[in-house]
Structure formats: C-alpha cells, structure tokens
Amino acid sequence: MKKSDKNIAKPIAVAMAAAIAMTAFAGCQREIEPSPDVTTAPPIVSSDSVTTTEPVTEPIVTEPPVVIPDPLEKYADYYEQNSDFIGWISIPSLKNSKGKLYVDYPVVQAADNEKYIDLSFEGKKSSSGCIYADYKVPITATSHADNITLYGHSMKDGTFFRKVLDYKNGVDFVKEHYIINFDTRWEENRYVVVACFLIGIYEWQDDEPLFEYFKCRNFDTQKDFDYFYENIMHRSYYLSDIDCKYGDEFITLSTCAYDFKDSRYVVVARKVRENEDISGYADTYVKNKSRHKPSILD
User: Which domains does the chain have, with CATH numbers?
Assistant: First the structure.
C-alpha cells in the first residue's frame, strides 16, 4: 500500500470504530462523543528525500586483438613444396673453403619424431633425413615451445649437423661461431650459444640422474627453468657472461656423437632479446674446468 493510501484509510477506520462503539453502548447512560472530522492533507514530499538511481555502467574490458603475422615471403616456396616446413636453421660463420655454409637447412615438424629420420625434405628416402623440430609443441604464427629442440644427423661427409660436433674443439671455436640463426615461417631470429655438452640417453651411462634435455620444452615455473639451466651449465664445456633468465627462449641442437655408444652432442642457444647488444659476448667464453662428464668415460 502506498503512503497516501495509508493516510486516507486511517480516518475511515476511526469513523467506523466510533459507529460500532455507539451501537454497542446504546443502553448505557454514558455519552459517547462523536469523533471529530479528519481532513487528510496531501503528503509532503521533500526534494531532499527523493533519490534518483542512475544506471551503473560497468567498464568494458577488452583483450587486445591477437596480431597474427604474415608468413615470410622468402620461405613461401618451401612451404608450398612441403607443408611440414616450419623454419630455417643456419650458422652464418661456419663455412667451407668455397664460402658455403655447412649448416643451412630447412626445418620441418611432423606429428612424431620418426618421420624425418630417414626421409628428405623432398619426401624421398634418405639416410641423411632432414633437420626436424621436436613434435610435442607445434610451432605456429603465434606460439611455440620455450625451448625448441632441433634434431639432425651428423653425416660423415660434413653435412647436416656434423659440424655441430666441432663445438667440442675449444674456446676459440665457440667464440668464432657463437651466433646461430633460426627463423620460423613468420619471424627471423638470432641466438647466442650458452652451453655445449656431451651426454648419454640412458641411466647406466652416468652416475648422476639422467638429464632428459629433450623433454625440457616449456618452463611453466621458475623451478622448471632453473632445472633446465642448472643442468646444461653443469655439463657445459664453456662458461660465458651471457645471462639467461626465466622468460627467455632457447633452441637446442641435438646430434649423435661417437665418444661412446648412444651419446649425443648438444648445443643450447638463447634467443637474442630486443635491442640487446651481443657484440661483446664472444670474448667472454672460457673453458669450464669443473664441467660434469658422463661417468661412462671414466
């Protein structure tokens, strides 16, 4: 009931009560005075009591649109030839006597790590296979693994990843060849070598817990990154002033070694940060005198 309705109903109720009382006491000598007339005044509404409810508009939060880069034109023909093509690996300073790069190859990524072990980029059977990226985390225009492992055979004729083994040759070699280029289909990238090490792939080859470097793909936490970084530096032939931190991106080159059965030689490089000056890094490499060696070599 509205406030004004209550004000009207009240005098009516009073009058009815008076009439009922007169009837009830008709035989009584007591005189019941009639109720005075009641004039109902209109309700007074103060402007101070009026509240106006304005509609509350919640701020609209919109995520910035995801910008999908266009594929690099220079790699268009390779993708048309093989849809598994995802990038290009090269070591620009590592050349033969004719000036040709030893490591300068297309990189593919398949649904597993078996397809390109003995299959060429052109889809033909080949003992050389192809340089391929670990299949677990797809490389796309907008995402990829924090650490991309690239596999390649170390062929006796010096092709594919054979020259990666030369990173065992000492500080002078890594100083000269510390820059590695790895482009995806959408982006050109440079990397600087931070670790080089020899390792086995089975527990019996070492007296320390097996370090499965090829499973270090994404660093979801600081702990994940620390595990990866501490292990590669623990084994690295070299140390340098190149710092690495959680949030950096890496590539890992992995190839067969011949120091013992089922051994691998691995080179890890960190992606060059935006506006980073890398010109002084070469002079900072030194031999790691306390590096861990697989115990099978003892």
Answer: 83-297 (2.40.260.10)
